[in-house]
TrEMBL record:
Domain Putative restriction endonuclease residues, every copy: 12-163
The protein's name in its UniProt record: Uma2 family endonuclease
Domain of life: Bacteria
Organism, scientific name: Methylomonas rapida
SUPFAM superfamilies for this protein: Restriction endonuclease-like
Alphabetical keyword list: Endonuclease, Hydrolase, Nuclease
Keyword Metal-binding part of the UniProt annotation: no
InterPro entries: Nuclease_put_TT1808, Restrct_endonuc-II-like, Uma2
GO terms for MF: endonuclease activity
PANTHER family per UniProt: GLR1098 PROTEIN (PTHR36558), RESTRICTION ENDONUCLEASE DOMAIN-CONTAINING PROTEIN-RELATED (PTHR36558:SF1)
C-alpha cells in the first residue's frame, strides 16, 4: 500500500470520492492510500483461488469475490481490497459497494505489501467477528499459511507446502496447492 496525496476524509466521503477515481484506494482511519498494480503471477494465483472457490461454492449460500470489491472493517474505520474474499452473509451477498462479514479472506503476498498483510492488515482483519480463516499465499515459497480462528478467539496457523490440499474448514472444502499455483513458472 502506498500513500496517496495525504488526503483525509470520513468513510462516507471516501466512498463517494472513490467512485469518481480511476485507480483503487484503501482507506484507514481517515487516510487514503493508492493501490499499486500487481505482477502477473499475483493475478494468476488470485484468479486460480477465486476460480477454485467459485466452482466449489456453486449452489451454496457463500460467494467468492475478487479484488475489486471493498471490505469494510468498521471497528478500525477502514476499507480494504482483499485479493479474494468469501462471504456467507446474506446481506453481504446483496451488497453494492462493500461487504462487512467475510468468512474467508485471502491475500497473495507481494514484495511491497508482505509486511503489512502479515502485520497491520491482519490485526484489522481479526476485528471481524465473522472471519474464520485468513490465507496468506507466498508465491515464491509455494506456500499457503492458513490462520484459523479457534473457539477461544486464538488464531492457529496451518502451513501448507508441497502437493497437498489446503483445508478450508470454514467452508467445508479443500483447494489443492497444485491448483492454486497452476500456470506459475
Amino acid at each position: 500500500m502506498q500513500t496517496a496525496q495525504r488526503l483525509r476524509m470520513t468513510a462516507d466521503d471516501f466512498l463517494a470520492w472513490e467512485e469518481t477515481q480511476v485507480e483503487k484506494h484503501e482507506f484507514v482511519a481517515g487516510e487514503v492510500f493508492a493501490m499499486v498494480g500487481a505482477r502477473r503471477e499475483h493475478v494468476v494465483v488470485s484468479g486460480n483461488i477465486f476460480a477454485g472457490l467459485k466452482q466449489r461454492l456453486r449452489g451454496k449460500p457463500c460467494h467468492a469475490y475478487m479484488a475489486d470489491l471493498k471490505l469494510r472493517i468498521e471497528a478500525v474505520d477502514a476499507f480494504f481490497y482483499p485479493d479474494v474474499v468469501v462471504s456467507c452473509d446474506q446481506n453481504d451477498n446483496k451488497a453494492d459497494q462493500y461487504i462487512s462479514h467475510p468468512t474467508l479472506i485471502v491475500e497473495v503476498l507481494s514484495d511491497s505489501t508482505a509486511a503489512y498483510d502479515r502485520g497491520g492488515k491482519f490485526v484489522a482483519y481479526r476485528k471481524l467477528e465473522s472471519l474464520k480463516e485468513y490465507l496468506i499465499v507466498d508465491i515464491d515459497a509455494r506456500r499457503v499459511e492458513c490462520f484459523r480462528r479457534m473457539h477461544n478467539n486464538d488464531w492457529l496457523l496451518h502451513d501448507y507446502v508441497g502437493e497437498v490440499d489446503c483445508e478450508l474448514n470454514s467452508l467445508g472444502l479443500r483447494l489443492p496447492l497444485t491448483e492454486i499455483f497452476e500456470d506459475i513458472g
